[in-house]
């Protein structure tokens, strides 16, 4: 049975009882909420903990505290902010195993995935600290233009103010840290709204930041169902930016109520893998299975459909079958050797099942898997999937290797681009010119050659086009998104220090 065993270091975050009851962090204090909601572990379908549900009063106090505290973080020397991060990083290293195990219990992900996620968050911290030193400005001499010839300007970068981060269940620690850190390093205060399904491991990280001395009010954590708490946060005019990672449907809703504040949207996708006729089929098969099944397919950058040209189709499918056992599927709490656990809930498994059944009804062939027990959805191989099937077009977010036959490269590109999404994709070919043609033509924010998409610490910028969102996520890119450029103009003409424009130069 899933159980949380937290060391006394984390005692202030929750009240003890039959189940730990987690609080929210408002104005520097862990605060009990009037209402709570159950957190069900997908490993056994049983209650693991209770999570605070913030009400309007809690949310308003958090927003006010965050707004009031902007001057605190702005007045802190950047080097002091880094010192705090370094301390937090050390503490995270000390507690990372405990945090990873809590993440396994709440999310059902394999221990290796949970460890990978925490390590990526720590590495992201290290890289973000380096990149935050690049928050600098520009000096612009004005005499390149006739109307500013006697002026100069400094373009400086300032914090935006209060940043709201809303993060999804699939990487609850990493995506939350990837919003919180750059925001703080850039001198903003932050309110985080982690996912209801699995917020605990991230809140443990927050406790570390609080304990190492992050100034009161610079970081707040609100929990509770997004549909209840989200609107109050995203529509508030005291919040200056929303950094959202989640589904396209929720992203559209947020965009509709956010008003004029800055919004960064990292949304859903339907990642294409193109297997062209000159691909290394063994490499492609191994990578396509990895990209489809890793984290039980619950990745925005998952390979969600494989477009295979007909000349290599049968050979490629044979190879896919050989790799279907690459992941060890089971309960991650029973063995650390498990590499693929259940999906996030039984409801999610039912949804995936519906998509697979719909495809089979429309003519697809099921070559492996296709069954589920509660939230445990088997690694599944579905081939000959017609374009009319829902799974050919909608985000799967489950462990289904979905194969579609196409005529040639042009056909593959046509199918790939005829999608409302444009987040991630990959191309398998050994030919440079074919690779270049396909990579340039794909309407996708990211394209990887000869490997499954994998974005780790986001050292390379990441983000979508079309209904997959806008804005670029990445170590320095996110810091950039969370600052605003201010132009300071100096008129030198009163003291005749500028260069007056004469039209033509006269000696
Ligand atoms: P989701 O249902 O959209 O939820 C994401 C977050 O938004 C959760 O914290 C959720 O809270 C909150 N939320 C829900 N309604 C809200 C509202 N009205 N206002 C404000 N916040 C609200 O997504 P998910 O199911 O957790 O995650 C899977 C999705 O995320 C997939 O579509 C995946 O592709 C996408 N994703 C994208 C990226 C990327 O970088 N592009 C990365 C990872 C995941 P509750 O949990 O309380 O409902
Ligand atoms: Mg959801």
CATH topological fold name of the largest domain: Aldehyde Dehydrogenase, Chain A, domain 1
Strand content: 15-25%
User: What is the typical, i.e. mean, pLDDT?
Assistant: 97
What's the total count of β strands?
24
Supply the CATH superfamily name of the largest domain.
Answer: Aldehyde Dehydrogenase, Chain A, domain 1
Distance between the termini: 89 Å
How many domains? 2
Largest sheet: 7 strands, mixed
- Which ligands are bound? NADP nicotinamide-adenine-dinucleotide phosphate, magnesium ion
Oligomer description: single chain
Q: Mind telling me which CATH architecture of the largest domain this is?
A: 3-Layer(aba) Sandwich
Name the descriptors.
single chain; 507 residues; alpha/beta; Aldehyde Dehydrogenase, Chain A, domain 2; 7-stranded mixed beta sheet; 6-stranded mixed beta sheet; 36% helix; binds NADP nicotinamide-adenine-dinucleotide phosphate
Blueprint of the fold:
Layout: E1 14-15, E2 21-22, E3 24-26, E4 29-31, E5 35-41, E6 46-53, H1 56-68, H2 70-75, H3 78-107, H4 111-132, E7 138-141, E8 151-159, E9 162-166, H5 172-185, E10 189-193, H6 200-211, E11 219-221, H7 226-234, E12 241-245, H8 248-257, E13 262-266, E14 271-275, H9 281-293, E15 303-309, H10 313-323, H11 346-361, E16 365-368, E17 372-373, E18 376-377, E19 380-383, E20 400-406, H12 409-417, E21 424-428, H13 432-441, E22 446-449, E23 469-470, H14 475-481, E24 483-491
Parallel strand pairs: 9-10, 9-12, 10-11, 12-13, 14-15, 14-21, 15-20, 19-20, 21-22
Antiparallel strand pairs: 1-2, 3-4, 5-6, 7-8, 8-24, 13-23, 16-19, 17-18
Helix pairs in contact: 3-4, 3-5, 3-6, 4-5, 5-6, 5-14, 9-10
Bound molecules: NADP nicotinamide-adenine-dinucleotide phosphate and magnesium ion (MG).
